[in-house]
Each structure stands twice: as C-alpha cells, then as structure tokens.
What we know:
Layout: E1 11-12, E2 18-19, H1 34-48, E3 57-61, H2 69-74, E4 78-83, H3 86-98, E5 105-109, H4 115-118, E6 124-130, H5 139-149, E7 150-161, H6 163-172, H7 176-184, H8 193-202, E8 206-213, H9 230-241, E9 253-259
Parallel strand pairs: 3-4, 3-6, 4-5, 6-7
Antiparallel strand pairs: 1-2, 7-9, 8-9
Helix pairs in contact: 6-7
Amino acid sequence: MSVLVASDAPDQTAEGVRLPASLAGDQSPGGRSPLLWASLRHILQDRQDDQSVAAPRVLDCGGGSGSLAVPLAVLGAVVTVVDVSIDALATLTRRAAEAGVSDRVTAVQGEAESLAQLATADTFDLVLAHDVLEDVQDPALVLGQIAGVLRPGGVLSVVVANPVAGVLARVLAGDVAGALAVYRQPVAQAYDGQSLAGLCLAAGLQVQSVEGLGVFTDLVPGIELDRPGAIAALSELESAVAGQPPYRDIASRLHVQASRPSAG
Length: 264
C-alpha cells in the first residue's frame, strides 16, 4: 500500500510538524477508510492538545510497510512498528526516510504474541491492531499484552474483517454459489462486533465505540461514484451509519476503540 508523501504545499500541525496538504484534512492514506483515519487523527490531536506531555507515542502491531505508521509520524507521533516481515520493515524504513520522519519511526521484528518482550509497558498513547487478530493463535493473549503496553488512558484501535460482508457482496454480485461457499467455509478467527468488544473487555479495557468501516462503499458501482456529489454523499452516509446496527453489522470491516482505564 503506497504512502501519501506528496509534493503539495505543506500545512502546519499543532506540534509544529510540517505535513503535506494531502494529509492535512481527513483524507485517508494508503486507501484506508477516511472514517478510520479521521478517528486516529482525533486521538493524536487530543494527546497533542495536552502541552504538558511529549509527542504522542504509537505502536502499530503488524504495521508492515508503514501505510499508517509513516503518515502518523508525519503528523508528529513517535511510532514503533512491530512486524514479522523483514522485507516489510525495510520498506517502512525507506518510506520513513523519504517522508523525512526516520527519527520518529522505529522498526521491530517480532510477533504480536511476543509483544510484552518487544515493547515497554505503560508506554503508548495509541496501539493499532489492524487486520492482526485473524492471524494469531491466541487473540486474548495478544490483547492482554496490548493492554499492558498502553499507558493509563491510552487507546487501542482494533480492526478485523467482517465475514458477513463477504457473503453479502457475492450475493449482490449474483454469485449465489460463491456466497454459499464463503458462508460454509470455516474461519479460524472470525469476529462480530459483540465478540470483539468482549475480548477487549476481558483484557481489562473499556470499550469506547464499535463501528463498521465500509458499510456501503464496496457495494456501490464505481460508475455511480462519478456522479456529481456522489462521493461526498457516500462519505456522509458511511459516517452516519457506522455505529448503527444493523448497518454496522454488514460493513466490510469492524472497528473497535477501547481504552486502558486511567489510574485511580
């Protein structure tokens, strides 16, 4: 996934960091959901607004080549990326250098299950676990270790694929046999919003929100988005229904934000 390192005229962040105009609004780097990107920006801004603390510290579990880590560093965060792939981390390092944020990005090779040995406890303001839990043997263990590296008041952002969306998309495309095959295919780690929130609660975290990412976006024919105002209307619709069942329950991905309780 490419990172937006643009040559546009830069804007100024609250931390005095210069960032490209392409990242100044709520636009989404690397093709990610604008709603997701806006929520991450909001978490960082809340931390940056507290002038008594240092730059926000972010841990990206499975962050790979830096599709989110580098833009977050551009916004002023100090980002650590943990990933098993040496090649992905090499790409991360190159992209961070190209964006001029090498001093704010650290690459660590390792597995999410070993997070307690790879990261310092009580350190991070924001931990990303996007598209990670489906690939680990013990998601409860991973979330427990994430809770341990969050500082009190820190936020976890966890994203998983929604298997319901895969079935629905095939039905709407007329591939009923394919939909049936996907429905019958066993998935080792599959989540709905309730089970995902339950895992966070079991790890000692307080669930702040459960939202759907891409409720309608993948269902709209591309030609329809060429109509004047269609993209803006779709964005507004996605924002309006993201937290509302049953719309949330058919989204392409599910997004839970949870925080570590503050001391006292």
